[in-house]
Q: What sequence folds into this?
């Protein structure tokens, strides 16, 4: 199930979006539903916090409020649901540049310039989000997305991640992958909360992927990964690691 949210300050345009989306998902018989259509960003955030489903958000960029705009709203939505789909609706396509400034990944932009074009783009976005979500669910693909300093989004399958380590550069993390190395802005405490149960904070400076552990040397407090890289294991974390590995029958 995908929950759809609409935040548009113009009532006529909000109703148009709602009508087009409702009609299309009914016609295509998609497992989707509009849960919230409003001009209030706070209502969108509250609804997102109380949903366990994947979200597809249609956000007007200019919300005619001094407190926020579509980009700031998208940033807050990403904090609640990092893997959601966000579509910006705007009269000014040139504003798409600001997705990099605000470091928000957008599924697409819909320009309010032509009714027929808008209709087709709405349908495309719905199908695109539905297909991406269905593919991920069917193949059980978990993805980590890193936002680089220039705003570029880089996605890495969880299966390809060896570990995360704090960088020598303040507030930056290094992702050690099987075939890549990425450094991106983030804090390990924040990252730890976002990752699933297959990742483990083995040391104050390190998070390892349990699925890619090759061996654990409890005597020397070292975790050896599938690529033979080695990471420190905090003494106070040994018992917790044993329990977690036993629970998941990994080692």
A:
């Amino acid at each position: 199930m995908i929950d759809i949210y609409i935040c548009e300050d113009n009532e006529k345009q909000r109703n148009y979006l709602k009508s087009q989306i409702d009609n299309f998902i009914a016609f295509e018989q998609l497992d989707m539903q509009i849960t919230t259509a409003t001009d209030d960003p706070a209502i969108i955030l509250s609804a997102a916090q109380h949903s366990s489903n994947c979200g597809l958000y249609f956000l007007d960029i200019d919300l005619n409020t001094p407190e926020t705009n579509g980009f700031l709203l998208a940033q807050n939505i990403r904090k609640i649901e990092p893997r959601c789909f966000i579509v910006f609706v705007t009269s000014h396509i040139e504003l798409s540049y600001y997705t990099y400034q605000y470091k928000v990944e957008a599924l697409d932009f819909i320009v309010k310039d032509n009714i027929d074009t808008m209709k087709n783009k709405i349908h495309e976005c719905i199908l695109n989000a539905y297909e991406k979500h269905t593919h991920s669910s069917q193949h059980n693909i978990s993805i980590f997305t890193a936002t680089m300093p220039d705003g570029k989004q880089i996605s890495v399958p969880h299966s390809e991640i060896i570990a995360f380590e704090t960088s020598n550069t303040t507030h930056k993390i290094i992702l050690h992958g099987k075939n890549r190395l990425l450094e991106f802005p983030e804090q390990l405490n924040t990252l730890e909360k976002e990752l699933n149960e297959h990742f483990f904070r083995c040391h104050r400076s390190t998070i390892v992927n349990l699925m890619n552990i090759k061996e654990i040397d409890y005597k020397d407090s070292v975790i050896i990964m599938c690529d033979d890289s080695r990471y420190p294991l905090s003494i106070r974390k040994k018992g917790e690691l044993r329990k977690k590995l036993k629970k998941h029958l990994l080692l």
